[in-house]
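Hi again,

Forgot to attach this to my earlier email, sorry! This is the prediction with guanosine-5'-diphosphate-rhamnose bound. I've pasted everything inline since the attachment limit keeps bouncing my files.
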Amino acid sequence: MSEERKVALITGITGQDGSYLTEFLIGKGYTVHGIIRRSSSFNTSRIEHLYQDQHIVGKKSLTLHYGDLTDATNLLSIISKVNPTEIYNLGAQSHVKVSFDMSEYTGNVDGLGALRILDAIRSCGLEGKVRFYQASTSELYGKVQEIPQSETTPFYPRSPYAVAKQYAYWIVVNYREAYNMYACNGILFNHESPRRGPTFVTRKITRFVAGIALGKKEILYLGNINAKRDWGHAKDYVEAMWLMLQQDKPQDFVIATGETHSVREFVEKSFREIGIEIKWRGEGINEEGYDENTNTVYVKIDEKYFRPTEVDLLLGNPTKARKELNWELKISFDELVQEMVAKDIEYLKNNDQYN
Ligand code: NDP
Ligand code: GDR
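Structure tokens for the complex follow:
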């Protein structure tokens, strides 16, 4: 008997989650196809270690295709050519603050992008054959309605990013019900790693702390340090994406740690990794983080990082995923911070500066 086909197509493969998911799926024996955007410089650094030129190695486990979530014809052509058994839609303009500056573009990519893939699946006649994962987000909960947040908590999106993702969430539910598609939303809370984009707050902090450890003398400017997030490790979260597509019936799941920490705490913990205890003084925009022993100021506030509408507190309840997917968190918050600071120090030691 022929072996079961395991062919995954990933949008957003060059991003943090795309890279971990690709590693995970190749480890499970999948053939992986990824959609990458044309860029004037190389944008595949996160997956470079997985990509081997097909002319050099015999068996090819990763193939890349040029494409974009705004280009329906291109998506249709890739899906019909690849004939995937699973599609993971991770591609997005994923920065919440940037979405206030690029609201229409964000709506197009993050909202309509999901629709374009679902329609392409239908046009190829694959709706009964392919399983679809949508990268939904805890940003849907936005303004706090309930703590902790679960699959039944009402949405109240607070940014163009979150509003676009809400469209994507509901179009997935609608196509599942209307066309009997195996399509799931993973409502993932924040997840980080050494591969996190450098403009997200955790990586911004750990890169800065690495610089201080290696003797740099700089100030870290942050926005709202009172915001609280439920931060997990991306490696744990990509496993949950895969698990959602291996069930008997398609459902939506919250993936979270069940713990919340403020940005302030993330700063303190990161500095502690290099032996510095951060204390806070001043108020509001004048608040600063400093080392009492040396009276050195390391952190200041810059209004430019404030958002027009903020999400104050996210805390997820992953009970359903634990019970129904048998999903388990393996990496703790402390381990996450340790790994991020250590990897940034290592990187900076070997590279002089970030490119
Ligand atoms: P990243 O920002 O690291 O990666 C985003 C990916 O999307 C990149 O590969 C990027 O390509 C690609 N992309 C951007 N615009 C387009 C476009 N127009 N067409 C095709 N691809 C595009 O995000 P993460 O890996 O952190 O997140 C993955 C997904 O999960 C995103 O959809 C995000 O919104 C969502 N999410 C993330 C969470 C998190 O905490 N990380 C939590 C909940 C949801 P390029 O490299 O060329 O820029
Ligand atoms: P978030 O992540 O908006 O939760 O979206 P981000 O790390 O950008 O912000 C987290 C919180 O930190 C506050 N903050 C700052 N944020 C940034 N980026 N830079 C700063 O200097 C700064 N100072 C304080 C923010 O105001 C916010 O409250 C991420 C993305 O990955 C989304 O794609 C995903 O959907 C959600 O997580 C879940």
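The chain has two domains: 7-193+233-258+311-332, 201-225+263-310+341-351. The mean pLDDT is 96.

That should be everything now.

G.
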